[in-house]
Amino acid sequence: MMDSQELNQVANIDATVVNDEQTEVSAEVAPRKVYTSKQELLDRVKELAHGEENPEKDEVDYLKTAFYKLMNSEREANLRDYLNNGGNPDEYQLVPDEIEEEFKAEMSLVRERRAKIFREMEAEKEENLHKKLDIIEKIKAMVTSPEEANKSYQEFKNLQQEWKEIKNIPAAKANEVWRNYQLYVEQFYDLLKLNSEAREYDFKKNLEAKTKLCEAVEKLAETDDVISAFHQLQKLHQEYRETGPVAKELREEIWARFKAASTVINKKHQQHFEQIRAKEEENLALKTALCEKVEAVVAEENKVSSDWDRHTKTIIELQAEWKTIGFAPQKMNVKIFERFRAACDDFFTRKTAYFKVLKEQYKANAEKKRALIEQANELKDSTDWKATADKFIALQKEWKTIGVLPKKIGDQLWEEFLAACNHFFEARNAAGAGQRSEEHNNLERKLGVIARINALLENPADDMQAKLQTLTEEYNSIGHVPYKEKDHVYGEYHAALDRIHKELNISVARKKMNSFKARIKNAAEQGGNALDTERARLVRQYENIKSEVQTYENNLGFLNASSKKGNSLIEEMNRKVQRLKDELELIKQKIKEIDRQN
């Protein structure tokens, strides 16, 4: 029979086990079947609703969570597809889900079954409580005297067996009922001391039973399934405390053996959940890092659609990574998910708003471009070539100022607009074919004049100045040349003029210098101050022309050559400056000649 110390030890270890079990089981993350479709989940709920299996609360909650997780993912994917295809968020409607309605109906049946089972179990516990209380009263009646104990020994054994066969009672009454039972059992054995043979026989049977329980716990410690081992240990503890006492000198030994084996299992169980908690903490760190990444993406600025698309891809990748990470600690699991979900929801809400505004902009841009197409179609058959061409150019410039459109509709509108533009310009080009023929003829004529100017340099003559004047007048009388050739012809013409003017200036300067030399020579032979007077006149002339050159060069610095007219004026002034510099050179030569004569 158990003494008070042994009773307290068993009670204490059992209380610890029960408390640990309640704590750890709530934290336990048992492997769950992964469901990939709503139909699979519905089929499992139907099995629970209509089969013989008792629905467990944890599984029912898991099935419900998994179902709505899949359904919400489907709805989010459908909404994204709708928006990406240009749908209006305000017009989006959820499509009724037939599977969801059936799932709700079957889940309701499951809840009814669970409620019924709970009521039956509570009723059974109450009945078991009354049975055990009745057994306690019967044993209590047996402990009035040693004679009654000896006479009732077999009945006592039957009551013990009946007690073991009775299942659970209400938890609130369990410890009190068990302690009362053990108290009267102990009193019965105390009265049974006179019948030592029966008492020794019970001690022996109890020792055999407790030894087997020790062996069972020691073997259980070898299993790798620590969760199963822990739960089996609870049943073995229940059997140990319901088994009667052993001989007093063996009580500590058998209890120490049972306790040592139990401690091995409890430590494994504790280590298992410490590992789970460590993994959960690691998962929390990983999920926190993902939250920070998503929040960083959400904080980035999205200027154009491609920014939204790029960030959407990143967030979807982070969501996929989130699904690969297990549970965080229970107290943080919901909070960390809410943080992650809030950041994602913020991003997709703002994305929806952005594309809603963008859609309105696309609509306005399309209307503006259609208005330009309508104007272009009204103008495309006009024969007022110059005015209409200016209008088309203005329409093309305005087209460029209008914002973008989705590629498909943008390309379509551009083709319509371009077709109207091409229609007009092709008609204008066809009408201007004769004019272009005349311009090409003028080009040939002007090139011919330029060739004849260049020929004057090959065969210089005294009447070269007069011939040049004639050719210049002929060139100026010729009409327009093709626009693309205008600048080239202009350059060739003035290059030829520059070369021939330079040649004429050299020739004239040479003649002037020869004439000056002869005149100076005569003046030197006559004597007097004639040379000094001429020299002073030339110096004054040199300074005047030098000042004029400086003025022209200063003015050239203020002219803008960006226009064709401005460029022509600069070229003319440069020619004039060059002629003045040539004249300065001639005067310098004259002054040198006077100095030589002196």
Polypeptide structure, described:
The chain has 598 residues and is mainly α. 84% of the residues lie in helices and 0% in strands. The chain has helices spanning 4-27, 38-50, 57-84, 98-142, 146-151, 153-165, 171-191, 196-220, 226-242, 248-299, 305-323, 330-379, 385-401, 407-431, 433-458, 464-477, 483-526, 530-556, 564-597. The longest helix is centred in the middle third of the chain and has 52 residues, at 248-299. The chain is elongated. The N and C termini lie far apart (161 Å). Residues 1-30 have low confidence and may be disordered.
Mean pLDDT, all residues:
80
Number of helices: 19
Count every beta strand, where a strand is a DSSP E run of 2 or more residues: 0
Assembly status: single chain
Largest sheet: none
Rg: 57 Å
- Look at the helices and sheets and give the structural class: mainly alpha
Run of helices and strands = HHHHHHHHHHHHHHHHHHH
Question: Helix fraction?
Answer: over 70%
Sum up the overall morphology in one term. elongated
Uncertain segments are 1-30
* Share of β-strand residues: under 5%
| Alpha-carbon distance between the two ends | 161 Å
Features:
598 residues; 0% strand; disordered N terminus
Topology at a glance:
Elements: H1 4-27, H2 38-50, H3 57-84, H4 98-142, H5 146-151, H6 153-165, H7 171-191, H8 196-220, H9 226-242, H10 248-299, H11 305-323, H12 330-379, H13 385-401, H14 407-431, H15 433-458, H16 464-477, H17 483-526, H18 530-556, H19 564-597
Helix pairs in contact: 1-9, 1-10, 2-3, 2-4, 3-4, 4-6, 4-7, 8-9, 8-10, 9-10, 10-11, 10-12, 11-12, 12-13, 12-14, 15-16, 15-17, 17-19, 18-19
